[in-house]
Every structure is written in C-alpha cells, then in structure tokens.
Design a protein that fits this description.
elongated; 9% strand; 673 residues; single chain; 23 helices; alpha/beta
Length: 673
C-alpha cells in the first residue's frame, strides 16, 4: 500500500486532468440516475392510457381530496383536544390527551407531506401543459427520446473520463519509467550482475503494466462506480429511503468479503509476477545463447525448462483469475438477496396499501406499483456498480504487489557514489597508483589482495596471469565499476573516490573481450564514444582500428545496421568497431581487455601497429596473452592468486619469474599446435 501511494505521486502533476475527469464522472452518474426516472412515466402511460395532462390533473384532485380529508381529521382532533381540556384531571384524561396529541401530530405530518406534494404537482402541471404533447403515444416517444439523448450525453462524459484517466495513468507511468530507468542505469556493474537483466526487464514491462492497471482502476472505476451508485441511491431514497436502507445492508458485508479476498489476491499476484520474471530469464538466456543451444542440441531441454516455467505461471495465474472471479458472484448473490428482500417488503406495501411495516413507517404515501418497479430498477442499478467494485479491490491489490516489486529496485542506491559536487579531475598527466588495494565480490573469496602498483603517465602496462586471477577486476577498479574494500587508487595524487565520477570516466576508454554493440548503425556505434565527433573524426578512428575499408565495402557503408548485439558482423569486426569507439573518445587512460582475442594474426599485427601510435602519450592497461601485444608494453605485471607476483619487461620476467615462463611456454605450444 505504501509503495502504491508513492506511485500516485507521479499523477500529482496532472491533477487538473484528474479533477476534470471527476467532474465528467459526476455528470455521467447524474445522467445514469436520471435515466431510471423514465420508468415511472412509461409504466403510467402504458397502464392508465391517460395523457400527461389528464394524469397530473387527476393527481392534483386526489391530493386535494386527501388534504381536505386530513384537514377535517385535524379539525376533529383539535375539537376533541378542547373538549378534553374541560375535563377534571385524571389518568383517563392524561391517557386520552396523549393519544389525541399523537394522532394529531401524525395527521399534521401527513397533511404537510400532502401539501408539499400538491405544490410540486402544481409546478409540474405548469410545465406539462407547456411542453408535453397531449397524446399518449407522442408523450411516450418524447420520454424515450429524452432517455436516448441522456444516454448519449452520459456516454460523452464517460468517454471524457476514460480518456482523461488514461492520459493521467500513461503520463504517470511515462514519468515513473524514466525516473526508474534513471535510477537503475546508475547502479553498480556488480548490482546488475547480481540481479540479472531479465528481472529488471520484468519490472520495467509486466510489473509496470500491472501497476498501470491498478492506477487506472483507482482513477476510473473507484471514482465512477460509487458516483453511479450514489445517484441511484438519491433517487431511490426519494421514493423510499427506508426500503433503500434495507438494501444497503449488504455494503459492510461486501467490504468484509472483499478485504479477505484482496489480501489473498495481493500475495497471489506477487508470486505471479515472480514467475513472469523467471520466464523472461529463460527467454533471454536461450535466445542470447542460441548458438550454444543448437551446438549441443539442447532444444528439447530448453523446451522442457520453458514449459515448466510457463506451467508454473499458469497455475499462479489461475489462482489470481479464480480469486478475481470469486468476488463478483459473491457480491452479486448478496445484491440479489438484498433486492429480493426490499422488493418483497415493497410488494406487501403495494398490495396492502399500507405505509407501515411492523410499526415502522416505510413510505410517506401508499406505494404505487409503478414506483415499486422503479425502485426495483434503481436497486438493481446500485447492485451493478457494487458488483464491479468487487473486481476493483482485487485489481488494486495486484497494483500494490507490482508497486512493491518496482520500488524494491527503485530504492536501491549504488555503492559507487557519483560525487557530483566533488572536484573535477584534470586530464591525467602524472601517474595512476594502487595503494594496498583489496577487493572481493564475496567476503569469503578475495579477488585482489594488497595490490601495490604505480603506473607513470603515458606508460603501457600489460597484465598477464591465469584465468580468474583478478586481472579484469583490477582494471575495472580504475573507472570505478567497483570500489576497493580496502586501500586507495590515486590518479595524479587524487583519490578517485573523492573526485567527480563523470570527470574520471570521461578520460577513460574501455575495450572488452565480450564486445557488445547496439542494434544501430556502424556510425552510431562508433560515435557512441564521443557524441560531439564529426564525420571525419569517426572515419579516422575507424582507420586506426583497421575497419574503415571494410565498412566502405558494405552496401550502406557507415549506415549499415549491425543487428542485435552486432549479430551481422564477425567477432573480429565487432572488436574493431569497439576499438574505434574507444579511440574516438581520445582518452588519457586506455583499458584493453583481450581486445584482439577474436582477430586473426595478420589483422592483429596491423591493428597493433596502428594502436601503438595511438597509445603514445596515453596510460594504457592491456590484458592479453599474445606475444605481439606484450612486446608493446613498457612493463608486464604478472598476477596470480589475487596478488601481483612480478613486474618487469618481457625479457626480465623470462629470466626471473617461473609463472611467466610457464605462461609463455603454454602460449608457444598453442601457436605450434
């Protein structure tokens, strides 16, 4: 509930539209209630076959006779009271005076009602004679035409309300999605790895839609349906508020049932949304790794896995459906029972021409059959919004569950702070230094331990070591993808945790082994490194990455779409485009993580020659096992078991580091093989 209320705040900027939508709902409800008032004149016209003029004149004459009769009764009781005053004091006198006064009050009350009704009928007579045809059929046609017109006007107001509510909901979700994305995109790399993109995608899509349905229900049905019911209640109370009150006994019972069902609904919806996240995860994994799936003929296994997840989702969805479907018939049964009770009491009053039941006044005047049928229609009309409100509560509970899941991520804060107010780093010119740096993803498994390393500006450092020894994590600490658990990383003597994060990353370029491209053109993928770059600068970066000629050979050149994750390009082509993107950024610090792992030896030598010129004057960290790349390094850092075990040139390490010797021998053996 708390998180759902937080979601409502996003509708506050559009409160004017909400106010207008409520006004539309009010007018729609008024016309909804007025439509049922046509039942009485239609039944009168069909049963009595009197013209409206004859009928109103007859009503006025009847009420005048009732007034005369009641006045005579009041006069008689007044005379009797005067006679009683002449009697000597006694118990008999007191009893008779009390009975007489009670009877007089009753008669005067009825007389007041009759006079008021006569006055209203006299006003109605004036308008009936002025505007209503003096023919039964024409009058019936006029009444039905007014009903059609009222329904049309009601429809206009209902359309206005639905349209305004829809715009408020969609604009609110628009703002919430963008704010949610803004928060999520600034989370740490490690936080993304822990949760998984499929879980986030489920919250951005399915959960948002469920929340939107809850908001639309709140602004729509929760406003419109009670107003419709209220309009009918007002008209029904005008006929007999006592009978109407008997019908409304179902309201507290219905609320109790809806509360019980709603709690079950919220839990069931929460589980349902979790299962949808599982489906997203399976889809993402199987489609992203489709080559692996096909290579190992795992299609049957993936089908079974997907079927198991969707079957579980089906069972959870059916629980939600059954809970949603259960509330409506329960409320409908209660409504029909209440209507039947009110109709039974009303029928007794009509048939007996009584105004009281068990000593309680039920109507001010004897109830007519037409009025009873109109009352029945109004009570049935009240039951319809109440029945619809039964599904409203369950949908709101679904919205509550979706809001909880969305704001669970919304409230997450990155551990790597942006330091927007921190000092901006000038362009790197002195040194990058690691002082006693320790880091681990899991406290039980250290990845880096007591790392000490100083790299001069413009120096090229190669990192080598077994897989999983912490090389990629070490260079990932420089752009602050993570922060060390202990120790400090300094750039030109400034602790990077205290500096403005944007100014830090603005002078770093990264090329990773697992190259990811956007489903866009080659040009846009390269210019992603510097959105202000000119066409000439983009092409020059492509030339340095040895990809320009290949791009020109394509039919659409730089405007060629690479497909999802660059699927239309080879691994080597993707790495060259990623390298061009990094070059275009003109970084002071360059990080290359196995950047030629998918490129053949001949192309690698060409790229190395080009990149060697680009690396001059830039501090470069290279993770590689290839000899050609190692030869470009000023120093080589050997990492093993989370520690730096040796630092030196290629020749020095061959003489002094046994681990480096083994790595070099293994590399030579692979080349020979």
């Amino acid at each position: 509930m708390k998180n759902f209320l937080r979601a409502l705040r996003y509708a506050v900027p559009y409160r004017k539209r909400l106010v207008v939508s409520v006004l539309c709902a009010v007018f729609a409800a008024i016309f909804w209630g007025l439509n049922f008032t046509a039942i009485y004149p239609v039944l009168k016209l069909l049963r009595t076959e009197q013209t409206p003029q004859e009928w109103i004149d007859g009503c006025i004459a009847e009420y005048q006779r009732d007034i005369d009769k009641l006045q005579s009764e009041a006069d008689r009781l007044g005379e009797e009271e005067k006679q009683l005053e002449k009697l000597p004091p006694s118990n008999f006198k007191d009893r008779r005076e009390r009975d007489n006064n009670a009877a007089l009050v009753k008669v005067q009350s009825r007389l007041e009602v009759a006079r008021r009704t006569l006055y209203h009928n006299q006003i109605a007579r004036k308008y009936i004679y002025s505007f209503v045809p003096a023919d039964c059929f024409q009058t019936l046609a006029l009444v039905l035409g007014a009903v059609v017109l009222a329904v049309g006007i009601k429809g206009v107001f209902e359309f206005g309300q639905e349209s305004l509510v829809g715009s408020v909901v969609n604009l609110s979700l628009f703002d919430l999605r963008n704010r949610f994305y803004r928060n999520v995109i600034h989370l740490d790399v490690d936080q993304f790895n822990q949760q998984g993109t499929s879980e986030l995608m489920a919250r951005f899509t399915n959960d948002m839609e469920v929340l939107g349905a809850g908001l639309k229900t709140l602004f729509g049905k929760v406003v419109a349906e009670p107003l419709r019911a209220l309009a009918c209640v007002v008209v029904a109370c005008y006929i007999s508020w006592q009978l109407t009150l008997m019908f409304l006994i179902l309201v507290p019972i219905a609320l109790f049932i809806l509360n019980k069902v709603g709690r079950l609904m919220k839990r069931a919806t929460h589980r349902l949304l979790e299962r949808m996240s599982d489906i997203y995860k399976i889809l993402q994994e199987s489609f992203k790794n489709i080559r692996v799936v096909k290579a190992f003929t795992m299609e049957p296994y993936e089908r079974r896995r997907f079927r198991s997840a969707t079957k579980d989702y089906y069972h959870k969805a059916m629980k939600v459906v059954n809970l949603d479907a259960l509330a409506s018939p329960i409320i409908e049964v209660l409504g029909v029972a209440a209507i039947a009770g009110a109709l039974l009491v009303g029928s007794y009053l009509v048939l007996s021409r009584e105004t009281h039941l068990l000593g309680m006044r039920m109507t001010m005047q004897p109830l007519e059959a037409e009025a009873l049928l109109q009352l029945y229609a109004l009570l049935a009309a009240i039951a319809d919004p109440v029945r619809k409100l039964s599904s409203v509560y369950t949908r709101l509970q679904s919205g509550f569950a979706a809001a909880d899941r969305i704001f669970f991520f919304y409230d997450r804060q990155p551990t790597v702070r942006r330091n927007a107010e921190g000092p901006r780093l000038p362009r790197h010119h002195h040194a990058v230094e690691f002082r006693d740096v320790c880091f681990s993803y899991d406290p039980q498994t250290p990845i880096l331990t007591n790392i000490h390393l100083q790299v001069r500006a413009g120096e090229t450092i190669a990192l080598v070591g077994r897989n999983g020894c912490g090389k990629t994590t070490l260079v990932g600490l420089i752009p602050r993808f993570y922060d060390p658990d202990h120790g400090t990383i300094l750039i030109d003597g400034v602790d990077i945790r205290t500096a403005n994060l944007r100014s830090l990353r603005g002078q770093i370029s990264v090329v990773t082994q697992d190259t990811m491209l956007f489903d866009d053109t080659i040009y846009n993928n390269i210019v992603y490194g510097n959105r202000r770059a000119t066409r000439e600068e983009v092409e020059e970066a492509a030339r340095q990455a040895q990809i320009h000629d290949h791009i020109l050979s394509l039919t659409q050149g730089y405007d060629t779409h690479v497909g999802e994750a660059g699927v239309k390009l080879s691994g080597g082509q993707k790495q060259r485009i990623a390298l061009a993107r990094a070059i275009l950024r003109n970084p002071a610090i360059l990080i290359l993580d196995e950047f030629t792992s998918q490129i053949d030896s001949a192309s690698e030598m060409e790229i190395n020659r080009a990149i060697k010129d680009f690396m001059r004057g830039r501090t470069t960290f290279v993770i590689t096992h290839r000899l050609h790349t190692l030869e470009m390094a000023d120093r080589i850092v050997v990492v093993d078991s989370s520690r730096i075990v040796a630092v030196g040139t290629h020749r020095e390490l061959l003489l002094s580091c046994s681990l480096y010797q083994r790595l070099h021998e293994a590399h030579d053996q692979r080349l020979c093989a």
